[in-house]
């Protein structure tokens, strides 16, 4: 049964998967090429099928049946100094999170939509011999959300929407084991923890157009509590420790609460061909207060246990609630061509006393541009975004194998394309 489940989930992840966080923390906002070109400032506009990810109430503006699908490519690189040595993350890393949306205007009052996209993910990969390997040398998180919505046109100018969300999440952490204190010669073992699970949530949204020159949007997504189960596997363990039965492969399980968020947007139309939107997202990362992992009963305690405890480990996070601010400008240069610019400033929720190498995070800015081509029932949107991380110092914590150092030269290039067809 578990094998069947794994194949089903693997197929789903072909449709939507993400492994790199472009937003602070490990949130993801690569929800469409037009959305990225506008810096995510689409909560007030909400005027294409990708509105299902930012403000589903806006789909009452769409006629007939419309579908949007596409993919964005993300190439991130960063340098992390640890214990006096600097290491660069995987320079060949390329992540390709796709997206798919479909909307149907049932009648003048009701519209339905289905969104498949990713809200959370990360990918941090270093060589397995780097200085911070005892904390983490590879960490990935993949998620996919299936999100059906119903939108109701309450009045000619006001719409509301409600949706439910089913989220699948896979988490993988690899770290080396410091066995230098296990009464043997210095030796690195290897620990590989992998777990997956499902969680459920909901979302609500409002959209209001007070006049022909402005649109207002408000959207809320609930927290999602994920219960994951999997396995902890150990390798490269010296024969003496194996004979004692230490570091047996065992089961693992855990619970994590992913945060809720509020999104706001005000779109203004000062002239027929020009629109400007300013917006913000407030994410309650304080709900992500810890990451707790429980192990099976067959774990034997020895010095160098990779997760510090025999049957349970709790990693405090104590993250902060933060804001993400954005602005997007769109100009209809020709009947078939739109020009776009966007900007984002994003605060990191990760405090200095719990930062680690699984997510070496800092404040960031995103500069975006893009083009929109449309003719008859077709539309093609392309974007390019440059993500710039702020440099950040890291204060060491010996008990977690986090060393004094800093994050530098961190950036990412993001390019994508989306296709829309109106039936």
Layout of helices and strands:
Blueprint: H1 2-15, H2 33-37, H3 51-54, E1 65-82, E2 85-88, E3 98-105, E4 110-117, E5 122-125, E6 138-153, E7 158-178, E8 188-211, E9 214-221, E10 224-235, H4 239-243, E11 250-258, E12 261-271, E13 274-283, E14 290-295, E15 312-316, E16 322-334, E17 337-346, E18 364-375, E19 378-389, E20 392-394, E21 405-422
Task: Name the descriptors.
4 helices, disordered N terminus, single chain, 14-stranded antiparallel beta barrel, mainly beta
Helix content: under 10%
- Give the termini distance in whole angstroms: 40 Å
Could you tell me the mean pLDDT?
85
Instruction: Give me the count of strands.
Output: 21
Largest beta-sheet characterization: 14 strands, antiparallel, barrel
What does this structure look like?
The protein contains four helices and 21 strands. It is mainly β and 423 residues long. The chain has a 14-stranded antiparallel barrel. The two termini are 40 Å apart. Mean pLDDT is 85; it is low at 1-20 and 300-310.
């Amino acid at each position: 049964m578990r094998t069947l489940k794994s194949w089903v989930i693997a197929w789903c992840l072909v449709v939507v998967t993400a492994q790199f966080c472009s937003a602070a923390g490990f949130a993801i906002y690569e929800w469409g090429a037009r959305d990225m070109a506008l810096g995510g400032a689409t909560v007030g506009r909400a005027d294409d099928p990708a509105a299902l990810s930012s403000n589903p109430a806006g789909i009452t503006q769409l006629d007939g049946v419309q579908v949007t699908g596409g993919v964005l490519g993300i190439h991130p690189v960063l340098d992390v100094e640890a214990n006096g040595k600097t290491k660069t993350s995987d320079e060949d890393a390329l992540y390709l999170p796709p997206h798919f949306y479909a909307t149907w205007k049932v009648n003048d009052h009701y519209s339905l939509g289905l969104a498949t996209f990713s809200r959370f993910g990360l990918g941090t990969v270093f060589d397995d011999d780097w200085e911070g390997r005892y904390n983490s040398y590879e960490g990935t998180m993949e998620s996919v959300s299936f999100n059906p919505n119903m939108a109701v046109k309450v009045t000619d100018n006001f719409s509301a929407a409600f949706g439910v969300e089913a989220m699948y999440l896979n988490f993988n952490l690899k770290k080396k084991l410091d066995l230098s204190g296990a009464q043997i010669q210095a030796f690195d073992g290897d620990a590989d923890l992998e777990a997956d699970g499902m969680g459920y949530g909901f979302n609500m949204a409002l959209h209001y157009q007070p006049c022909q020159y402005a649109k207002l949007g408000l959207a809320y997504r609930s927290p999602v509590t994920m219960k994951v189960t999997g396995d902890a596997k150990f390798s490269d363990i010296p024969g003496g420790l194996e004979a004692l039965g230490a570091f047996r492969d065992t089961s693992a399980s855990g619970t994590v609460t992913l945060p809720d968020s509020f999104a706001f947007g005000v779109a203004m139309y000062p002239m027929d061909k020009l629109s400007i939107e300013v917006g913000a997202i407030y994410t309650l990362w304080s709900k992500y207060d810890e990451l707790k992992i429980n192990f099976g009963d067959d774990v034997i305690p020895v010095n160098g246990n990779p997760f510090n405890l025999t049957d349970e480990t709790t990693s405090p996070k104590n993250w902060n609630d933060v804001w993400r601010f954005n602005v997007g400008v769109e100009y209809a240069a020709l009947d078939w061509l739109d020009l776009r610019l966007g900007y984002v400033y994003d605060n990191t929720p990760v405090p200095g006393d719990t930062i680690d190498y699984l997510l070496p995070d800092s404040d960031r800015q995103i500069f975006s541009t893009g083009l929109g081509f449309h003719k008859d029932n077709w539309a093609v949107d392309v974007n390019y975004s440059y993500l710039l991380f702020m440099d950040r110092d890291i204060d060491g914590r010996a008990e977690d194998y986090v060393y004094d150092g800093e994050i530098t030269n961190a950036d990412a290039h993001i390019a994508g394309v989306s296709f829309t067809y109106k039936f």
